[in-house]
């Protein structure tokens, strides 16, 4: 029996087993909660360490998993039952267990059973009562962390829904007195859950204590007013009136009621609230009225469209209000900056935003449908029975927003945009136009940031600052930051500087001519050191959405230490923001201003050089990371990077994946920027580097967009090999998206291009690739045909390396078809010629083929010799994936020779490598180990 209600506990044969450290318990809990479903390594790391994993997190995780496996084996030995086991799948780790042995899963099953529409009240009360008896305390009470809190809150909601249904059934059965003690305890535990108060008032009335029920309403109303500043909800108010009028109806029937829990819960994606937020009282009241209306019975989701000019404070208002009311949305708060008016011209696509939201609810990648419309349907289904606040910031138009709107009436969407979004308003969205701050609000804002005494000491100067900043919040914020960092400066000095540099940003067209945002930015910018000011200008040329320190160093041609100091200087002046450790971004108005200053102050050749450096930075860094992700992939040849480019070179596969994850959005913007600036070579080369990452993370839509851009770039370059390569890159995402006709079309185009331009080597490469695809589909005879065509083409082109490779490929195909002697004929020719060329990679691959053939012919000694030689070569080459393949072949041969001890050793080594690479073959090796009685624990 495993208990998660209360402290995590594992019991076997009456004994309570030691479950290890809190982190090990969290790993075990993470697998138990998702029992029967794969949990990825990334998800486990995130659940255990939140956003701050140690450098060796994966190794520590593997140690925990090993100890947990031993713990589960011991539990099985004590009970004499089948083992609970952890299996490694391609998608992650899966805990196989009878769910009825876990209290939360048994609880869940009983609640689902008791919630069925066809259940009688007697059966409902009995089943739900049995479920509620399992609850000892909130889950995982001794553990901490963001994920643990999410689990705890989620099961608390599940419990409250179960209690609601149980109590309603008991009331219909005429058992109100039995409920009172339970409900009194629950309302103390959950003072802001109005559904419990409704049940308690109903029970009091049914027990003949109507006066207490009325008094209860008065107490609840006062508590809600004191704690949240809101009135009771519609259901509670209606019940109160019904009791007073003597018109109380029976409690609801078997349909589950949605519990309104006013506590906060993740996903909590809101940016930090602004310290010292002031003003906007009228707008906040308007939003409060909307949320009150959203509590009323309705089938429509409440949507509010906040419109206003750039820098007016739309985001600040939306985020501040969202933080104020987040307890009203206990199932989470989603946030995305849609970058509808990003200076790079690259708004966030709805498909990208929907995928982020699905990830926020921990939807496993394998359960996310390929089609965009299906993803939207899944997203809305997830929110249908939840209360979630969705903040869609900086939208370009209604079309960008519509797919992201929730469908559940318990949700609310808050949209901000520089457009009024008339299409959205016509469809029922509530408009809220944000104007300039009032003079009083602006004065209060400055007082909050500079201190009341400083503002009251120079009232006329403060009024002039407000006037020169045109009451624009972002302009006032920059002035306040400047004044706050120089407390000895009289405010009159700041006013004089503002007067001397009057101007306006084109972005603020439509605001009164006195608006002087450019002056404010210029004034702050000109206070920077020359080096920091130059870096600020060049940051305006970066595609965004953010930039890491090495990229900033490359952009400006600086050393890393210099870049780090200058970025800190700019952040201190609030010209940029360090939104994540070592990563910087800034407001799009400041980005536009920085780019404008670059066009004015930096000659065109210097701007071009900076853009070339940043493109070279990402290209060479991505190329280095890509080679770690797929070491056996033939590298493309890059031109040397521009001088002063700080190329990032991840140390291993894990860090390479982490680098791609951090830079994913940036790389997509960089490719888009390369397209728009005519850097076609960079475009297709960057696309090449992204292929493996996009494939492994399932970003098929990004893959289509990226590789189509690469194809267009290759077409402009009029290079058939690059076009064919782009077509080949497009085939896999088409297959994953079930666009099989498109995949076939791209492969045919690739072959046709090589044939049209007489590129025999290219044709041979494509036939070779097709052969491998067919082999993986089990179509070995067709694969042999394509490999044979490749051999003839390499031979005709006098391409010896390719010809020798094809000899081995043909031999391997014959071996898979069972003709092992013919396989040896081809493979031994290939080995001799690889040795003549000194091709170690080719020798190692061919030795694997020869060993495979010898093993199947029963000559185990020769097979072992070949596999050992191949293993040594792969180790010398540092090709750890192929090293694992050789180890697997060695183990297979040892088993065939009756040496299971040696097989155990080499298969363990192979399993360790494949787990390190997160390769799906790791589970098949674990199965092999289990079959010889030595399963890795």
Secondary structure topology:
Blueprint: E1 2-3, E2 9-12, E3 15-17, H1 22-33, H2 41-49, H3 57-79, E4 85-89, E5 92-96, H4 103-114, H5 121-133, H6 146-172, H7 177-189, H8 194-206, H9 210-228, H10 234-245, H11 281-294, E6 302-307, H12 314-325, E7 333-337, H13 350-360, H14 372-383, E8 389-395, H15 398-401, E9 412-417, H16 422-426, E10 430-433, H17 439-450, H18 452-457, H19 459-468, H20 473-485, H21 491-500, H22 517-525, H23 530-539, E11 547-548, H24 549-556, H25 560-572, E12 577-580, E13 583-585, H26 588-601, H27 604-629, H28 653-676, H29 680-697, H30 700-717, H31 720-736, H32 740-756, H33 760-776, H34 780-796, H35 800-817, H36 820-837, H37 840-856, H38 860-877, H39 880-896, H40 900-916, H41 922-931
Query: Briefly, what CATH class of the largest domain?
Result: Mainly Alpha
The tally of strands reads 13
Residue ranges: pLDDT <50 for 5 or more in a row? 254-265, 294-299, 503-516
Distance between the termini: 21 Å
Please bin the fraction of helical residues: 55-70%
- Walk across the major sheet and give the strand order: 7-8-9-6-10
CATH architecture of the largest domain: Alpha Horseshoe
Number of domains: 6
**The CATH topology of the largest domain:** Serine Threonine Protein Phosphatase 5, Tetratricopeptide repeat
If you average the pLDDT, what whole number results? 83
SS content category = mainly alpha
Largest sheet: 5 strands, parallel
As a whole number of angstroms, the C-alpha radius of gyration is 33 Å
